[in-house]
Amino acid sequence: MSIAGDFDKVYTIVSVFLAEDSNTHRHVTEFMGLDLEMAFKFHYHEVMKTIGEVLIGIFKGLQAEYAHEIAAVGSQYPAEPFKFAEPALILKHSEAIDLRADGVEIGDEEDMSTPFEKQLGRLVKAKYDADFTSSTQFPLAVRPFYTIPARTTIDTRTATTCS
Q: Domain Aminoacyl-tRNA synthetase class II (D/K/N) spans what residues (predicted)?
């Protein structure tokens, strides 16, 4: 409603409670959610760029404000420092699939399985030295309800870092 009321960007950070049977380590029924609604002028890449900027701002804020707490957790649970590219790393689905290696099988038009996503994280870290990435241009055949066909031409007035 706020977007229709001529606000360009609206967000909320709220507690989310899902009434779902989620007996996996990848799904939670209670969490803090960040919901961003945004009007864009030319292409959804404007939204991808904004989301990347917001998350990088959060990452930087956490690293600056909570360095002591991060170090305390790290002393008990050693891990490499969290790294991210600036601007945010955005890979086309085809680029992510092209990184496949080490026996994780996935076809060009397949959905990403949990083993592939884990391997992709390792491959992105090795190639780009980043722990955070987004994916775009997901195949229509995999998720037709959530995916809009990619346009063959992009308005040149959209000067973003992703294509």
A: 3-151
